[in-house]
Design a protein that fits this description.
Elements: E1 12-16, E2 39-42, E3 47-54, E4 57-64, E5 73-77, H1 80-96
Antiparallel strand pairs: 1-2, 2-3, 3-4, 4-5
Length: 98
Amino acid sequence: MKPAEFDLDASQVRHWDLDQLNESVPLDDQQQALKEDLVWIELARGLSVDVGWYRTTFIVFVIADGDWDAPVQRREAPTLPDLVRELHGALAFARTVR
């Protein structure tokens, strides 16, 4: 999965490790690539999108003004296809904030 697959506009991709994951391989066989820090994208207006793996699911956070303790949105995705959908959704949501 590459950043170019997502509508990132003028966003800054600060961290991207999703390219280490393969949709055709079960997640159980990719444990070495599953970690809390998979994606960090800085968007306009002080927003960020963060993706991490938390034990059994991916979690996508939309963060405002660096307040990581109080995300403005949290989305869960148990599979890679779900993650693609939820990441697209989080990015679309972030464009509507403020």
